[in-house]
Amino acid sequence: MSTSTTPAGDAPQKKGLFGRRKKVKDPKKPGQIAQIRQVFAMTRKADPSAVWWMLLAALAVMVVAVLIGLWLDQLIYLIILGLPLALLAAVLILGRKAERAAFAQIEGQPGATSAVLGQLRRGWYYDQEPVAAEAGGTMRGMRDLHNAAMVFRAVGKPGVVLLAEGPKGAAQRLVTAERRKVARVVGDEVPVHTVMVGTGEGLVPLRQVVRTVKGFPKKLTNDEAAVIQQRMKALGGRNRPPIPAGMDPSRTPRMSRKALRGR
């Protein structure tokens, strides 16, 4: 007589129709509805007017649906059709407002540029840590990291993109020096672009960084970009400057992609 036992804490998987095993949901992972609720709560806290814009968008869709229904003498059908469209319009508005709220949360924080670079898709290479950094002045005897200047690097089909943040003078000095280093490694055939991130004249706002980076003309293939990235990694290993004292790169603010998509 033989008995079979299952390890403690491991529940037997249930089989569904046609003998397929049902996927066990992770209780720690929120579902889509819970994610939308979290995004909605975060957005409403950052921008209370988002609720009214969502209601206005949904109401506008329903008004159009009713008017078309009256015109075609199909009021009930158009109302039923208009309900999911109204919900979709409200979710789209929520996505836009959530995106602005997410950017507002990290705007001005040291390393915010690194968090935005996480939105780059396949074909791009970037480092979470800055390739050049310079701490700001002192405040109450401690380094003022909020005034630190940093340069981040991304490599893709447009070539090498250097993104500088922080005080304009120090950031410009750092990115100019880093551009010289990169140009010596990649040569004249590979474009090297610079982007000054911040708010003000001549600076690129945080919410437009990804669009600006992707907007540069594509000059390289995927394979060529991968080769350039290997050269850049070698350069970073030899010349990467020390991170300003008191800064932990692993705690760089991250942006939620789900929040940016409104999910």
Q: Measured on Cα atoms, how large is the radius of gyration?
A: 25 Å
> Which whole number gives the mean pLDDT?
78
Summing up helix and strand content along with how strands pair, one would put the structural category as alpha+beta
Helix content: 40-55%
**CA-to-CA gap between the ends?**
53 Å
Main β sheet profile: 5 strands, mixed
Give the uncertain stretches in residue-range form. 1-11, 138-142, 241-252, 254-263
Compute the number of helices: 8
Shape: elongated
Strand content: 5-15%
Q: How many extended strands? A: 7
Order of helices and strands: HHHHEEEEEEHEHHH
Task: Describe the protein's architecture and organization.
This protein is of the alpha+beta class. Helices cover 47% and strands 11% of the residues. The chain contains 8 helices and 7 strands. The protein has helices at 32-46, 49-72, 75-106, 112-117, 168-186, 209-214, 222-239, 257-260, and strands at residues 125-126, 132-134, 138-139, 142-143, 149-156, 159-165, 192-196. Strands 1, 2, 5, 6 and 7 form a 5-stranded mixed beta sheet that branches. Strands 3-4 form a two-stranded antiparallel sheet. Strand 5 and strand 6 (159-165) form a beta hairpin. Helix 1 (32-46) crosses helix 3, helix 2 (49-72) packs antiparallel against helix 3 and helix 5 (168-186) packs across helix 7 (222-239). It is elongated, with a radius of gyration of 25 Å. Residues 1-11, 138-142, 241-252 and 254-263 have low confidence and may be disordered.
